[in-house]
Each structure stands twice: as C-alpha cells, then as structure tokens.
Write a structure and sequence with these properties.
Elements: H1 2-19, E1 24-26, E2 31-38, E3 42-51, E4 57-64, E5 69-73, E6 77-78, E7 83-91, E8 97-107, E9 113-123
Parallel strand pairs: 2-9
Antiparallel strand pairs: 1-3, 3-7, 4-6, 4-8, 5-7, 8-9
Length: 127
C-alpha cells in the first residue's frame, strides 16, 4: 500500500512539472522607435521583463543583428513572478539613415525566441 501511495505521489509531481512552464512577458515595449539621433551617439535602452510562469525563466543568449550592439541581462535566471531587465546598447558610429537593430533573446520558454526591435534615424554628424 505504501508503495502504491509513493508511486502515485511520484507520478503526480512528475505530471505537475510537465505543465509547469516559464513565461516571458515584456513589461516595456519590444518594438521601439527612437526617432532621430546624431551619428556617434551611444543609444541605450532598458527593457523590463517579467516571468509570468511557475518555473525559473532562463535567459540563455542574445542573437544580435549588428556587431554595433551589446546586450546584457540584469540576471540570467528570473524566478517565477519576478522581474528583470534586458539592457541594449547601440553604437551609431559610421551609421546614417534608417537603422533597425534586432535582438533575439533565447530562453527556456515554449516559444524559445523572443524578438526586440529598435529603430532610429541616424543623422550625419556635423563636421
């Protein structure tokens, strides 16, 4: 009898983990239009996120569309119902006109890849 109860509890907890998941929610906008910036400006944005799931959210690695972009996570593991920040820094040196930078954040969520997009119009620096 004890064995059956133990087996039942084990199967119950395994089943609970099957439906448990991390869920990334963007508190701030994921698509940002900065407008006009002067060439050479270092554009910095902090995007707040939340784990609306019931297991830890793991921010694995950012995939950037441009080497001019640096991405940092305030924490690599965001506990359930906790918040974190994705910091994006874009160097506009040698850029002109419309620029769109895409950052894909790879996570342990069902969707796995979450896209951030920052656009701006870089105006040539006055000599």
């Amino acid at each position: 009898m004890k064995r059956k109860i133990g087996l039942f509890l084990l199967l119950f907890f395994l089943a609970m983990n099957i439906w448990a998941e991390s869920r990334l929610t963007f508190i701030d906008k994921r698509i940002i239009n900065i407008g006009d910036v002067e060439e050479g400006t270092l554009v910095q944005r902090k995007i707040k996120i939340k784990n609306d799931g019931d297991t830890p959210l793991i921010l694995m690695k950012p995939i950037k569309s441009c080497n001019c972009t640096a991405v940092r996570f305030s924490k690599e593991v965001v506990n359930p119902q906790d918040t974190g920040v994705i910091e994006v820094e874009i160097n506009t040196e040698h850029k002109q006109g419309t620029n769109v930078v895409t950052v894909i954040v790879v996570t342990n969520t069902e969707q796995q890849e979450h896209v951030l997009r920052i656009s701006m119009n870089v105006i040539k620096k006055e000599s």
